């Protein structure tokens, strides 16, 4: 049992690094840019447009 632990510990680090790299590559791939931009606009959709301000000079 104790001889397996260091091997499992090293395998976990390698597995985590590979999964992290895969997730980063999946998120940053070029084809998803439009989708992410649309998702980023969701919180701003319910805001009313601002009324134009009059230019007041002192």
UniProtKB/TrEMBL annotation:
It holds the Pfam family FixQ. The keyword Transmembrane helix applies. Keywords: Membrane, Transmembrane, Transmembrane helix. InterPro entries: Cbb3-typ_cyt_oxidase_comp. The chain crosses the membrane at residues 12-28. The keyword Transmembrane helix applies. This is CcoQ/FixQ family Cbb3-type cytochrome c oxidase assembly chaperone. It comes from Teichococcus rhizosphaerae.
